[in-house]
Amino acid sequence: MQPEAHQPIGLFDSGVGGLTVAHSIQSLLPQEKIIYFGDTFHLPYGDKSSESVRYYARRISDFLLEKNCKTVLIACNTASSSAYDEVVEHVAGRAIVLNVVDPVVSMVSKKHADGKVGVIGTKGTINSQTYQQKIHQLNASLEVISMATPLFVPMIEEGFIYDDISNAIIRAYLTDKRFTGIHTLILGCTHYPIIKRQIEKFFNFGVDVIDAANIVAHELKTTLEEMELMHTGKPDRHEFYISDYTPYFEKIAKMFFESAVQLEQLNFWK
Ligand code: DGL
Questions:
Q1: Cα(192) to centroid of ligand 1, in Å?
Q2: Taking the domain 102-212, which CATH number applies?
Q3: Is 189 in the active site?
């Protein structure tokens, strides 16, 4: 069945970090209903094998299709890096499949003719070399420097932001000599928009720090417009599911969505 305009926007992440993308979608497309799934039962994806991440992504796509979503938006860089092609094949035209890597790659490759681009993300995202390969397909003159920054996710989740501890961790990673002279830094993880200003400050605002959330929301809007799939009128209440519930997720969800979120537990893995 072809997707239709009245259906909700479906998106998923390994946890609640993808709510940064959900928040941008809500701001840009307030008429759309959102169905979000955070796979907290398997969190973090960044340390899992790509085989496991692909398996999770397929099953969650089925859930979003059962929920009648018109999109399966992979709002997780790790899953976007290793599972996008597989999800496209699995969904087979029943919904629009989007990821958080391609819109950013496309934007950066067009914006800069050459020079050095840095990419930071989880081990899974960086080891997959997806950003590097995709940027070089569009612009072979850009030099891409990638680095896994795995401490950032627990650091942000534990609330160490805009303080001495996070400044020290940011400095420890980003003073790496390979980053000298970058004109752009891609934040290749859904959590990192939370520390965007802090990273910009670290570079004395001399580096273009790219956060996917708004870019992806615009890409979604363009796609819906082109396919005449924009919903009109008032949206129904959003639905937010997580596969493992603790009050802690509720607390940090608020930080990523920038307002209170009512999370429902739904675990189809057990
Ligand atoms: N959501 C993941 C990402 O964007 C980060 C957290 C994780 O490792 O699961 O890569």
A1: 10
A2: 3.40.50.1860
A3: yes
For 218, phi then psi, to 5°, come to -65, -40
Q: Torsion-angle region of residue 178: left (phi > 0), alpha (psi -120 to 50) or beta? A: alpha
Q: Whose CA is nearest to atom 7 of ligand 1?
A: 44
Q: Which two tokens stand for residue 3?
A: 């997707």
- Of the residues 174, 189, 195, 216, only one is catalytic, namely 189
Q: Where are the domains of the chain?
A: 9-99+214-265, 102-212
Report residue 88 as tokens. Answer: 């496209």
pLDDT tens digits for 104-152? 999 999 999 999 999 999 999 999 999 999 999 999 999 999 999 999 9
> Do 9-99+214-265 and 102-212 share a fold?
yes
End-to-end Cα separation, the chain, in angstroms: 29
Instruction: Please state the pTM of the whole predicted model.
Output: 0.96
Residues 217-235, mean pLDDT to the nearest whole number: 95
What CATH number labels 9-99+214-265? 3.40.50.1860
Q: Is 69 a catalytic residue?
A: no
CA angle 54, 39, 268 (to 5 degrees): 90
Ligand 1 atom closest to the Cα of residue 18 is 1
Give the CA distances from residue 44 to residues 48, 81, 129, 235, in Å, rounded to whole numbers and listed in that order. Answer: 7, 14, 19, 31
43, 153, 157: which to mutate for ligand 1, most atoms within 8 A of CB? 153
In three-state secondary structure terms, 247 is helix
Is the Cβ–Cβ distance between 74 and 97 less than 8 Å? yes
Q: What's the pLDDT at 235? A: 84
